Amino acid sequence: MPTLARLGALALAAALALSACAPTPAPAPSAAPSGTPSASPEETPTPTPTRPPLAELVLTPQGIGEVRIGEPVPGTDPALAIVTWNATGCADSGIAEGEPWAGYWQSTEAGSPHEYGPPFAFFLTTEGGVEHAPVAAVRVLSDVRTAAGIGIGSTRAEVEAAYPTPTATINHFDISTVYVLEEGDRRISIEVAEEDTGGYWPPEQAGRVLFMWAGSTEHEAGGIAGGDGGGPCPV
Question: Which residues contact 65 (CB under 8 A, 6 or more apart)?
């Protein structure tokens, strides 16, 4: 007859065997992340480069746009360039294409009509009058303004309000005043028609800006009104 101790041992062994055969409980599922997944940022399209319109160009003592006094005109995609080379611009002066001073750089956009020569807003002169020489001057005939908003047709009062302390003012043969604005070795010259000239200037021009140009201070400052030396071709 089994003893109580033996019965207890048998019961314990049976319990351990049942425990070993029981299945292991599955792990609890992990919690799903809260919130909505963030969308990837959209790429901003790169804007297509365009030529700046004349109204956005600014005449400075250093030049205009990418054109710099004392440097050749930079090579630029013609679709973006603000100037274009006119190889036969001075043909009427009897200069053959390819010769010095036969051509000049002119604004790609024509600009507003004016009474001074071909319909472009500004032109460049170069050292020696050749295409790839350093730029000597930028001469404005229409549309382009300075950083202070002065342009062809601005009044004397507007010029003096914008530039109350010019580097110099030059009386040009009693028909105009040149306001000289120097910055280092570069300058802007703004030429204003005199008001009391006995009818030399028509009423719509008297007391207003006739010409503006940027250039180097190594050249003497002065006016160009009343002469034939203000254009791109030699006379």
Answer: 52, 57, 82
- For the chain, what are the domain ranges? 54-216
Which residue, chain included where needed, has tokens 């006995």? Answer: 198
Angle at 108 between CA 217 and CA 123, to 5 degrees: 25
Quick check: pTM over 0.85? no
Residue range 144-176, pLDDT digits in tens: 999 999 999 999 999 999 999 999 999 999 999
SS3 83: strand
Q: In angstroms, rounded to a whole number, what is the distance separating the alpha carbons of residues 161 and 183?
A: 19
d(CA 208, CA 202): 11
**What is residue 40's DSSP assignment?**
P
Per residue in 75-123, pLDDT tens? 989 999 999 999 999 998 899 999 999 999 999 999 888 776 667 999 9
8 A C-beta contact, residue 125 and residue 136? yes
Query: What are the angstrom distances between the C-alpha of 147 and each of 26, 60, 78, 151, 180?
Result: 77, 7, 26, 10, 15
CA 156 to chain centre: 27
The DSSP line for 147-207 is: TTS-BTT-BHHHHHHH-SS-SEEEEETTTEEEEEEEETTEEEEEEEE-S-SSSSS-TTTTT
Q: Tokens representing 199?
A: 């009818």
